[in-house]
Amino acid sequence: MGSSVVERNRVDSPDGGWGWVVLFGGFIITGFSYAFPKAISVYFKELMRDFGCGYSDTAWISSIMLAMLYGSGPISSILVNKFGCRPVMLIGGLLASAGMIGASFTTNIIQIYLTAGVITGLGLALNFQPSLIMLGSYFDKRRPLANGLAAAGSPVFLSALSPLGQVLLDCFGWRGGFLIMGGLLLNCCTCGAVMRPLGYKVRKSAARDESNAHELKEMLPSKTGQEENDLEKGQKDKPKRKKLLDFSVLCDKGLVIYIVAKFVVVLGLFVPTILLVNYAKDQGIPDKEAAFLLSIIGFIDIFARPTCGLVAGLKCVRAKMPYFFSLALLLNGLTDICSARSTDYTGLVIFCVFFGLSYGMVGALQFEVLMGIVGTNNFSSALGLVLLIEATAVLIGPPSAGRLVDTYKNYELIFYMAGGELMAAGLFLAIASYCCIKVQKKKDTSAIQDTDTEGNSNHTNHEGTHAMENS
Question: Per the record, which residues fall in region Disordered (predicted)?
Fold first, then answer.
């Protein structure tokens, strides 16, 4: 309960200090949250052989995990607002690890959905959102750079976990690989432990002073009526408790536009990376080279995200962040469409290079845009609602793509589908943001002009009245 007091009495962001430790913890959490659902795709071929299922069935594992990551957003927001970030992240780390360890003992694909999909996904969700909230608390002026560096955890872990998963698969089978991966996820608990609340000691002493004042009040004789009224008035003047989940943020037009665009984005954003390894293996590419394709995306992404974060921190760019994000979406969608006919290993490597660049831009900008729209104070509730809406999209996207492959035996369709969705989302975000901002500016200008006119009119009337009185 002490952490909830910390949340309500927020101090200024230090933009450094212990914030760099928090940033490193967010780096690891982001890496596991986004890279893990893609990295386990190296096990899909073995799961298909053992359980006799198809592409769509195995794609559900990653989709459920991502859907829990998104859909548990409101739950995470409520828990963070009530208990604070640190305890929520510790519980999340334990759940993420327990899910993968339990999955190693499963006997059918449904059990994997429940363990690796639901439990591990929920654990990652309880780590991911609090890490973003803590990052926003510790950084303000350097926030675009901090978000870019934290987002770089995704490609770094993707580059490492995909080859590691293939090695574990070759040495221990998919069950041993799941067990070891579950052990690695315990590092999320360590990251949660370093998420020290901002200004905790100051607020703790304030709470102690309030407790001492209450004890002193009980020891003293009863107060007079005037003193009681003053006391009641002081209690009324106290700030209200923070809502566990504030739905009023949905009144913001900019947030509604962002939610619609992100829903379409998530339909196609994860499709290429989840099905890429299986596609390469079906083209006759050896298993290790196929798994290395995800590492190529990760290597490029490592440099793309911090670089994009630096560019986003420029004053001229930060003021037009939604348009910069739209450009990243258009580039990512165009990469998917242009690479739909790539079948040889060289073509797939080229695709991975350009995909890693554009995907890194999207990853570095998405939460910075959201923070810019709603602000730091409303970020927790807004993020929870955004992730909940996106959960539906992530449940639809990859399994639908897998169903297309199972039905038509043609991978080109999934690249066209994913690319078209991303380009449509980018165009919608740019056009809707421009129209919304333009209309808002006109309203603000009109309001200012009306105020000036009214002020001048009142000033003229006042002068006329003053002249009459003098005469």
Answer: 211-237, 447-471
Nearest to 4 by CA among 242, 194, 248, 238: 242
Largest CA distance in the chain: 104
Burial 150-175 (b: 16+ CB within 10 A, else e): bbbbbbbbbbebbbbbbebbeeeebb
Q: Which residues contact 245 (CB under 8 A, 6 or more apart)?
A: 74, 77, 78, 81, 381, 384, 385
Cα separation, 354 vs 351, in Å, equals: 5
Query: What's the one-letter identity of residue 137?
Result: S
Nearest to 120 by CA among 138, 85, 145, 94: 94
Helix (H) or strand (E) holding 448: helix 412-470
Nearest-angstrom CA–CA distance, 190 and 22: 11
| DSSP of 337-401 | HHTTT--SHHHHHHHHHHHHHHHHHHHHHHHHHHHHHH-STTHHHHHHHHHHHHHHHHHHHHHHH
**pLDDT at 12 (0 to 100):** 58
List, for residues 154-194, the tens digit of each pLDDT value: 778 877 888 888 889 889 888 999 999 999 999 889 888 88
Q: Quick one: tokens of 310?
A: 């630096």
Contact, 168 vs 177, CB < 8 A? yes
pTM value is: 0.61
Percentage of the chain modeled with pLDDT above 70:
79
CA dist list (Å): 435 to 198, 257, 328, 432 = 38, 11, 20, 5
Distance, in Å, from the CA atom of 457 to the CA atom of 55, rounded to the nearest integer, reads 72
Q: Could you report the per-residue pLDDT of 11-65, keeping only the tens digit for each?
A: 556 766 778 888 888 889 988 888 888 788 888 888 888 888 877 788 788 888 8
Residue 93 main-chain phi, psi, to 5 deg: -60, -40
Estimate to the nearest angstrom the gap between the alpha carbon of 144 and the chain centroid. Answer: 14
C-beta neighbour count of 232 within 10 angstroms: 10
Which candidate, 127, 422, 424, 107, places its Cα nearest to that of 273?
422
Q: Which residue has the tokens 């998919």?
A: 174
Contact 270, 397 (CB under 8 A): yes
Summarize the chain as % helix, strand, coil (round to 5): 85, 0, 15
Q: Which domains does the chain have, with CATH numbers?
A: 10-198+245-440 (1.20.1250.20)
What residue type is assigned to position 386 of the chain?
V
Of 129, 156, 158, 138, nearest in space to 367 by CA: 129
Give the CA angle between residues 35, 415, 297 to the nearest 5°: 35
